From TrEMBL:
Catalytic activity from the UniProt record: 2-oxo-2H-pyran-4,6-dicarboxylate + H2O = (1E)-4-oxobut-1-ene-1,2,4-tricarboxylate + H(+)
Entry's EC annotation: 3.1.1.57
PANTHER family associated with the record: BARREL METAL-DEPENDENT HYDROLASE, PUTATIVE (AFU_ORTHOLOGUE AFUA_1G16240)-RELATED (PTHR35563)
Protein name in the entry: 2-pyrone-4,6-dicarboxylate lactonase
Keyword line: Aromatic hydrocarbons catabolism, Hydrolase
Length: 313
């Protein structure tokens, strides 16, 4: 049986130089997740031998299979996953769809689609558990797609009741504002809009993000990725119970201000981290530092993601 500490493999592909593999042997979290908790942002990679990486990809990861993801889910104490299509698979959603389809209803997916996707394919994705598309504006990950093409896709998926997940860098929010605020769906922002956490939490950059959420009730936020955003050097490793201190004020502000529009996820297998790979057990222990009461934790981990991804339950 696959365990959460199985070793990563890379199949027929050669990993990007300097690639950090996901952490094996994650610790048992001290924080006990509420029953029914959802890991609302994670990925599967390949395995490349079965689901080849896309020719247009900007990085080649180590494999991170559905079995390994679900072993981690069980180890950490989550009940469900939302599997987000990663750019290394381009618009070929096969690995993500396969993960959802074989989860016994415990996983939903976020896909990448192109303008030429057929209605039949959208319906097939829906039937497999897909509930949204991701628009990625992070320049190191994707080539530019014209906004009118994305708006056309958003209009079509809105009819299925899907959401749009947006991934962008904070400095690009002013330029993307008009486009984001024109989206006709629920909009879910990855990683708090990737703030520069060396700036003040009430400085102009993060104020703009808070204004974006305050003025647009359809905008939700993943308070994820302290390990990606942190600049203070304290990692969730070796039993460290107080890592990523510089990210805490940002995440806590969003959770306190918009408790009904926040969700959380591991971001396993943590693509493209450069300095360290976190122990996912310790990442779970980060949650009570940003959602500081049982009520906030219940909303963040259960009520909110269930409303977004399993509204029928
Ligand atoms: O886990 C994430 O969200 C982050 C990624 C990879 C990614 O999103 C992708 O490949 O689509 C990143 O910042 O490199």
């Amino acid at each position: 049986m696959t365990q959460a500490n199985d070793k990563p493999t890379s199949g027929p592909f050669e990993k990007t130089a300097g690639w950090l593999d996901w952490y094996t042997g994650p610790s048992q979290p001290t924080f006990k997740l509420p029953a029914g908790a959802v890991d609302a942002h994670c990925h599967v990679f390949g395995p490349g031998a079965e689901f080849p990486y896309a020719p247009e990809r900007k990085y080649t990861p180590c494999d991170a299979s559905k079995e390994q993801l679900y072993a981690l889910r069980d180890h950490l104490g989550f009940a469900r996953n939302v599997v987000v299509q990663a750019t290394c698979h381009g618009a070929d959603n096969s690995a993500m769809v396969d993960a959802c389809a074989s989860s016994g209803g415990k996983a939903r997916g976020i896909a990448t689609v192109k303008r030429d996707v057929s209605d039949a394919e959208l319906q097939r994705l829906h039937d497999a558990g897909v509930r949204g598309v991701r628009f990625n504006f992070v320049k190191r990950l994707v080539d530019f797609t014209p906004k009118e093409e994305l708006l056309e896709i958003a209009g079509r998926i809105a009819k299925l009741g899907w959401q749009v997940v947006i991934y962008f860098e904070a400095r690009d929010l002013p330029e993307l504002w008009d486009f984001f605020t024109a989206l006709p769906t629920t909009v879910v922002v990855d990683h708090m809009g990737t703030p520069d956490v060396t700036q003040p939490v009430d400085g102009p950059e993060f104020e703009l993000f808070v204004k974006f959420m305050r003025e647009h009730g359809n905008v939700w936020c993943k308070v994820t990725c302290p390990e990606r955003l942190s600049r203070d050097g304290s990692a969730a490793l070796a039993g460290q119970q107080d890592p990523y201190k510089d990210v805490v004020p940002f995440a806590r502000r969003i959770v306190d201000t918009f408790p009904d529009r926040v969700i959380w996820g591991t971001d396993w297998p943590h693509p493209n981290l450069k300095k360290h790979m976190p122990d996912d057990g310790l990442l779970v222990d980060f949650i009570p530092r940003i959602a500081t009461t049982p009520e906030l934790q219940q909303k963040l981990l259960v009520t909110n993601p269930m409303r977004l991804y399993w509204p029928e339950l």
